[in-house]
Write a structure and sequence with these properties.
By secondary structure, the protein is of the alpha+beta class. Helices cover 24% and strands 24% of the residues. It is globular and about 40 Å long.
């Protein structure tokens, strides 16, 4: 059986074709977090007035802050991490751990109704996006490489959170 060789020209053509298809892959289907009506929803103008530029980028545009830049990554006091957009309690300090990734990480949300999830195809493959259940703000992603008892790592942008000490 003769397999075709992968020439440099074919490799470049395949790379260009895949890159061109990415916007269409991520655009197919509406993100459930954006399509749903949230109890603490606001207009875009209201969000822009309420949030800092960095918070708006993360919460409303599904952005990601640079790793190791959030002061909340090192927060170890007893308390609650709430949504920076609507103050919904999201994560308890008892569920926080140092994942070494550069973002605040938790092995579970404060309760089942605090966060919601949807599938994100932004990088061309499915990831579990986590958002605030009350305002729909993008928080980060959930990965399956966390500690026991859940095995989950909620990798959360510090700009999406505000810490309230106990």
């Amino acid at each position: 059986m003769h397999l075709p060789t992968l020439s440099r020209r074919r490799l470049m053509a395949a790379t260009v074709a895949m890159a061109a298809a990415l916007p269409f892959v991520s655009a197919c289907g509406v993100d459930p977090a954006e399509a749903k009506s949230f109890p603490k929803g606001k207009t875009d103008a209201q969000w822009r007035k309420l949030l800092t530029k960095e918070q708006y980028y993360v919460l409303r545009e599904a952005g990601t802050e640079r790793p190791f830049t959030s002061p909340l990554n090192k927060e170890k006091r007893n308390g609650t991490f709430v949504c920076a957009g609507c103050a919904n309690p999201l994560y308890a300090s008892a569920h926080k751990y140092d994942s070494g990734t550069g973002w605040p990480s938790f092995w579970q949300a404060i309760d089942k109704g605090a966060v919601g999830t949807s599938t994100d195809y932004l990088l061309g493959y499915p990831r579990t996006e986590v958002h605030c259940a009350d305002c729909g703000g993008h928080l980060g992603h959930i990965f399956g490489d966390g500690p026991k008892p859940t095995g989950d790592r909620h990798c959360i942008n510090g700009d999406a959170l505000r810490f309230v000490a106990a």
